[in-house]
Amino acid sequence: MSEISKMKNGSDNLIQAPSMVDKVNHKSALSHDDVFGEISEKGPNYRNVGWIGTVALMMKTQIGLGVLSIPSAFDTLGLVPGIVCLCAIAAITTWSSYMVGVFKLHHREVYSIADAGGLMFGRLGHGFFGITLCLYWIFVAGSGMLGISISLNAVSTHGTCTAVFVAVAAIIGFICSSIRTLGRITSLAWIGLICILTAILTVTIAVGLQDRPVAAPQEGEWKSNYKIINNPSFTDAVTAISSLVFACAGAPAFFSIVSEMRNPTYYTRSLIICQSALIAIYITIGTVVYYYCGSYVTSPVLGSAGATVKKICYGFALPGLIVTTTLVIHMPAKYIFIRILRGSKHLNSDTFIHWGTWLSCTFSIAVIAYVIASAIPVFDGLVSLIGALLGTLMSFQPMGCMWLYDNWSRGKAEQRPAWVFMVCWCIFVVISGMFLMVSGTYGSVVGVIDTYRVSGGSAAWSCADNSNSV
Predict the structure, then answer these.
(1) Can you tell me whether residue 33 is helix, strand or coil?
(2) Which helix (H) or strand (E) holds 277?
(3) Would 64 disulfide with which of 144, 177, 224, 324, CB 3.0-4.6 Å?
(4) What is the number of alpha carbons within 13 Å of residue 96 lying toward its C-beta?
(5) pLDDT single digits (tens) 318-353
(6) Model-level pTM?
(7) 52-215+223-453 belongs to CATH 2.30.30.30
(8) Residue 38: helix, strand or coil by DSSP?
(9) Rounded to whole angstroms, what are the CA distances from 143 to 112, 137, 300, 380?
């Protein structure tokens, strides 16, 4: 019996041994990434974002600058058409964001939309989408710096020259964005998200409690002149829709976020939570503020409830705007950084080349964004221009092409109804994206020109208070 027991114990040990080996192999597999290479304790841990942290990064990437212009877009379109357009754009961009996760799981070597473009269209596609991606984030970063300067002007009652505030925003953005991994930025994302939500909820409550918005006539009886349906010109309509696109255009950032998740299979879970909350917040804030303010809503919306509330709201919003600017400088810098060092030991090691390259990338992006923020200091115009020219190109067309790339050959032979429907859907997404990009860009450029023509905006590198009109 003892011999049998020894044999049994020995057999159990033999059975358990492969399990230990499997654990070692699994641990080893986790230390290697198709994008970042070998991840060790000698360098940054690029794969350290949990699914809850992913929700924070996703929401902070989108809830920041875009939400501040939604009531103004509703004023242009009318309340019902504005909500319909917002829901339609949110539906398309949610599907596009879902495709990011699917494409990443199918092609683990993809880090950015530029890599996806390289798979689909070769070297030319990689170069085109790489340049477009960097331009998009640089413009968003410029818009973020402009938002920070407005916030600093509002809180300090124009304490110094606006050009100085924009420079301060650029310096803060450079320092914070130089944190090397999204895992370490996650805590900042939570802080920024809570702050920006507090700010917009405060102004939403304030406009409901006040007698009239600050921009409305302050004498005589006043009633909100909100419109259920408006009749804007084509230029005004596409400009407003472009602002809505900008508010929902987070898909380009999601490639970077899913690439740094510990477990990318949880991506869809995070996306559903993010988009559900996003749409609810956008509709609620946009509807309530526009209902009470009517055509006297300001953009950014935080200035709609008077000087005191304006200071309070911008005080709360300031950390959120800083985190937004941090993220949108970090992402293009990280793309360029990986592009330069991918496949080398310096990507994952704390070497001089590693730090020199990384800081050069974040500094260059911050400087270019600063120039843009100073040269086009018109918040509404800059937001709609970004949404039209680059937001649609990053959130519509590529995702339609990604589904076709993965499914065209496999489904062409059988041509099942579901496959045919998806092909038609992808074609619709691509065509609608092209239409919004061309028409929206035209409308946005015309809007920026008209703003300057009527002296509604500050001059380039101006010291004027850019929070007066907001």
Answers:
(1) strand
(2) helix 267-293
(3) 324
(4) 31
(5) 999 999 999 999 999 999 999 999 988 899 888 999
(6) 0.87
(7) no
(8) strand
(9) 22, 10, 11, 10
